[in-house]
Amino acid sequence: MNTPQVGIAMGSDSDLPIMQEAAHILEEFGIASEVRVISAHRTPDNIAAFVREAEKKGMSVIIAGAGGAAHLPGMLASYATIPVIGVPIMNKTAGGIDALFSIAQMPPGVPVATVAINGAKNAGILAAHIIGITDEAVRSKLAAYKQSMAAQVRKKDEELQEKGFRAYLEEKGL
Ligand code: RP5
What we know:
The protein has helices spanning about 15-30, 45-55, 70-80, 95-105, 120-130, 135-165, 165-170, and strands spanning about 5-10, 35, 60-65, 85-90, 115. The chain is an alpha/beta fold and about 170 residues long. β3 (about 60-65), α3 (about 70-80) and β4 (about 85-90) form a beta-alpha-beta unit. The radius of gyration is 18 Å and the shape is globular. 5-O-phosphono-beta-D-ribofuranose binds near residues 11, 39, 66, 67 and 68.
């Protein structure tokens, strides 16, 4: 679990509260990541270098989060031959819609797999899916993760059926 298989880049350390979720979920699947702050606008020279190093180190996926005029995922993708997953970060002015469009609207030939606004956890899970294509251990951890999600939902439904709608609402303070 020591060699990073996923590079996690973000435009600012203010993106860390969201982007840390990608690193945490990858850790749950036994996948090491390297977390970096690289700004498309403030440190543009570092973009090509980061991608080249990531590919040289044998990383399988890059996850990139950015808010506002979110050019980082697309710029990384322009250098990369490994998949890039983009995470639009919510901001106060436009709620993240600006970043979502900026990241998703890539020109033909340079794809960025875009997840939901603040969807860093899903970006991590998607990276695990990509790694799981060739890594049996990761694939079985993903299967267990899905089973555990299903068990939680079924448990909640059972509780709801047992207690009844009104008592359930009351208990949840709704
Ligand atoms: C983007 O601008 C970053 O990804 C961040 O979401 C946003 C604000 O950056 P800071 O002003 O917090 O550095 O480049």
